[in-house]
Amino acid sequence: MKRVVKEWYKKSAILGLVVIFSSLAVYINSLSGDFIWDDIEQIADNPVIKDIRNIPSFFTSDLWRLISNPTIGSYYYRPFFLLSLAVDYNLWELNPFGYHITNLILHAISSFMVYLLGRRLFSNHIPAFIGSMLFAVHPVHIESIAWISGRTDPMAAVFFLLSFYLYILFRDGKGFIMLIFSLIAYFFSLLSKEIGITLPLLLFVYELSFKQQQDKHSHPPLTKGEWGDFRDNRIRILQIAGMYLVISVAYLYIRALVLGEAIGQSSSSPPIDKRIYTSFGIILDYIWIMILPVNLKVLYDTPLKESFFDWKVIFSLFLLAAVFISTLLSYRKDKTVFFIAVWFFITILPVSNIVPLKPTMMAERLVYIPSIGICLLGGLVSYKICRIGSPLFSYSKAFIPIMFSILSLITFQRNKLWANETVYFEKAVEDAPQNAYAHHNLGDVYRKTGRMKQAISEWQKAVEIYPLHPEANNSLANVALMQGDYPEAVRRYRVALKGRPENSESHYNLALALERLGNTDEAISHYREFIGRASPNYQDLIDHVTERLRVGDRGKGQDQER
Q1: Would you say the C-alpha torsion 516, 522, 526, 532 has a positive or negative sign?
Q2: d(Cα 363, Cα 262) in Å, to the nearest integer?
Q3: In a designed cystine with 370, which of 81, 229, 347, 484 is the match (CB 3.0 to 4.6 A)?
């Protein structure tokens, strides 16, 4: 009996259960969290998810056009995310508890899949266990789990890892059906979040790292007939790669068809060269917070690098190049190390700011899938250190549970920052004091809780930082309108519309203020803009304004007849 208890760590099934339990335990206090930030629009105020008859529209529209405004496009085609919200609403209605349960389940499945993948890569469950535990409890993943709207990453990760694992089973001779399921899981990953597009490249590197090596070991020296088999195997691999590419092209075509012109709407984003200069430091920061998570933030306000010749840009580039070259050099010495290290560089590409990211260039949720490689690498390195016989490393085994405990404690404590909007946005302003959007959002939270003086102060700080901030100007204009200062309201609304011409709320409120000033003709033009741009959430108001305009037009017609 003592031997069984003592050697529990050698039983892979028990280790898998420990990973699942740990991934749930560290986030248990997030279950009491409220809807915050995007959760309000995407869940609480979103009529689309509240009727299952709308499910087909999830696959034919982009995320934000469907949720908030039919005239505003976005980059985001994530039908599975909306589908998950609709399922949650059907089960829990507007109880955040149920939505948080879904997030925890997704993270637990992802963590377990990391364990299964690690076992396949290492052929050893101990380093796989350490790596998956790092992934399960690491505080860099809090945003993806404790924030309901952050679930796109763990959802994509579940299908991403499942597809990868099924592909490995197929390559190990488990049947062609595994490949079919792998392709389906890959497509589901794409429908969850765009980062799934990196899987085919990762599979190619997997073949390069492991299968070629196995072929060489299994065919020395190759006879003439065996050379034909070797070549046929390569052709077969290319054919399989073609299947994943077909899925990729089909997804990109559907995405382009649905998003349309919204794909190219990035005029407000910084130029690509400046985004790339900035990305060198961001990628290094991601690596750093994975290794030493001591300066985590709920909001990162990353200064844009204007020139390549900025010493910080050059230093970051050289340091990043050194890490990348070291990864490439590891190919000859240890292909397993090479593969799990290059995992990070491949999967970080879609979130490296080559494609513009909004509202911030850096966010912890973006590193959820890329972190898998770093966690598995950490598991392998820790395992190898523990196996060194030197007295210097005799206490290394004791350090591993201490490390897990520290990471778990950090995660458990930081979950509280996502408890409600007040806590979250006060922390966001603390973390990013020069971020105008953080100040505006905090002001909006203060408004909801009746603290108008503090709200106005936050909105004023927002426009000090960014004079054209559309939402902050709109909020200050609303205050002026309620106070009867119509000229100030009109001025603020015009600034708000200069920053965001498609804002239907600003058009409507500007029309009200213009009417108070007697400028009826211009007011009517903005009422019409409101009708053309407003979301279905404003249907009652749309009907009211439409009727008013109809009556006005009828009255003008009668006057002309007289």
Answers
A1: positive
A2: 23
A3: 347
